[in-house]
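Schema walk-through. Below, the input block comes first and the output block second. Nothing else is stored per chain. Lengths vary across the set, and this one has 103 residues.
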Amino acid sequence: MDRINKLKEYLKSSPADSFLQHALALEFVKIGDDWEARKLFENILSNDPKYVGSYYHLAKLLERNFENKLAIEWYEKGMAATKEAGDQHSYNELQAAYEDLVY
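--- output ---
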């Protein structure tokens, strides 16, 4: 919980910082608070769609919660974003997770 509180403090001075929001979302995932994590991931991607690391984690969270149709949509959005960014490594990770879910 200490890391969560520290990250929340940092976010007070930089509320739009995608890195801090992503780190906080991951901390919520660790403690099983998928709702808070999901809100953060969705916020990041609506405000900063080029922050490609959040696509994978949001889609995995949705998959874990049996929201497969929505997870597929986020994997697809992530693959498009990583392709546009020229980030082949992230694209491959998203594609592998997508294929595991779809096939």
